[in-house]
UniProtKB/TrEMBL annotation:
This is Fatty acid desaturase. One of its GO terms (cellular component) is membrane. Pfam families: FA_desaturase. Signal peptide: none annotated. One of its GO terms (biological process) is lipid metabolic process. GO terms for molecular function: oxidoreductase activity, acting on paired donors, with oxidation of a pair of donors resulting in the reduction of molecular oxygen to two molecules of water. It comes from the Bacteria. Residues 65-331 form the Fatty acid desaturase domain.
Length: 370
């Protein structure tokens, strides 16, 4: 992928946006019972896996039962995080008027409070996708993921920080809302974090109490094995979530932008930024479900409030529209995208990085590779 291939005039950008609007309108008009049945079936499967996993841990003295229990619990936590929690809290099922599927009422099985996440992710990230100094998901406040981020000796630890973030990902997502880097810079005081941090403490206490106190104690003498099983399931979910999310945002050729470049942005320009700032991951149906269909990150960034199960059916059409306008459609298998992300993390640990790549979009604006 080499970025934007052809110059787009203002008229072309808006024509491009109108075609994507038409895709969105068609999908929204077709939403119905199949979508409701799908998410209910995924929720039933997730709950069944959680019950099965926790039941098997009661027989944890038998190694096959312990491993099966951990596997079931891991898949349950991944489904809750990716295909259910993330998508429901995006408002993808608010149109059903079902309280259980309400973006404002749903709470997921991680230490990150839903209310904090909805602000930092739904609003900040999806409004300012890949805009430097606006989208806090670029580096999560601890990593250098763009050559335009000023280098500091601190970033020599980039690979170490990335591994730590992957292992503790749910905690990284929780602390993300604290904006600790802004506190260090004096742009935000501890007093400003009172409400946000209060929700963090309460949610983390409930999660830790459930996974590492209540359920282990319920298994009596098997408490240490249950504790280890829960910790392992959380680790598997963390590593998987980190991999999917980073592969959708930070492979080579994913682009970033400045605030100046996105001033007075039109709908078409917003769509264009989402295309250039995202990447997909190829795979089969089960892989897409386990990724929460964030393997279709391009389609998700274009239409974050459309049920994610619809992304595979529109992916070919979105790609064809990109090809029509000479735009890149960044996609590849998980191992390829993950290796690309790893290379970027290591490369940007050092001073410099790839020189800015410029492509003309609209009248004179330029886009830089992340």
């Amino acid at each position: 992928m080499t970025g934007l291939q052809d110059r787009l005039t203002p008229a072309q950008v808006e024509e491009f946006g109108a075609e994507l609007d038409a895709v969105r309108q068609r999908v929204v008009a077709s939403l119905g019972q199949e979508d409701v049945d799908y998410i209910h079936n995924v929720i039933k499967a997730q709950r069944s896996l959680e019950i099965t996993g926790r039941a098997l841990l009661f027989a944890g003295f038998f190694p096959p039962a312990w491993f099966a229990g951990v596997a079931a619990l891991s898949v349950s936590k991944i489904l809750d995080n990716m295909e259910i929690g993330h998508n429901v809290m995006h408002g993808q099922y608010d149109w059903t008027r079902d309280p259980a599927l309400s973006s404002q009422q749903f709470e997921w099985d991680t230490v990150a409070p839903a209310e904090n996440w909805r602000h930092s992710h739904n609003y900040i990230h999806h409004t300012y996708t890949n805009i430097l100094d606006k989208d806090r998901d670029i580096g999560y406040g601890i990593l250098r993921m763009d050559p335009a981020q000023k280098w500091h000796p601190y970033y020599l630890g980039n690979p170490v920080y990335a591994v730590m973030l992957a292992v503790l990902f749910q905690w990284g997502v929780m602390l993300h809302d604290l904006e600790f880097d802004r506190i260090v810079k004096g742009e935000r005081s501890w007093a400003d974090t009172k409400e946000v941090s209060g929700r963090m403490v309460r949610k983390a206490a409930r999660q830790v109490g459930k996974d590492y106190v209540l359920f282990p104690l319920l298994t009596g003498p098997l408490a240490p094995l249950t504790f280890l099983g829960n910790a392992t399931a959380n680790l598997v979910r963390n590593l998987w979530s980190f991999s999917i999310i980073f592969c959708g945002h930070f492979p080579a050729d994913v682009e970033s932008f400045t605030e100046e470049e996105t001033e007075s942005e039109t709908r078409g320009q917003w769509y264009l930024r989402q295309i250039l700032g995202s990447a997909n991951i190829t795979g089969g149906k089960l892989f897409h479900i386990m990724s929460g269909n964030l393997s279709h990150q391009i389609e998700h960034h274009l239409f974050p409030d459309i049920p994610a199960r619809r992304y595979p059916e529109i992916a070919a059409e979105v790609r064809a529209i990109c090809e029509k306008y000479g735009l890149p459609y960044n996609t590849g298998p998980l191992h390829k995208q993950l290796l690309s992300v790893a290379r970027k993390i290591v490369k940007l640990a050092l001073p410099g990085g790839e020189p800015p790549r410029t492509s003309t979009v609209e009248s004179g604006s330029t886009l830089r590779a992340a």
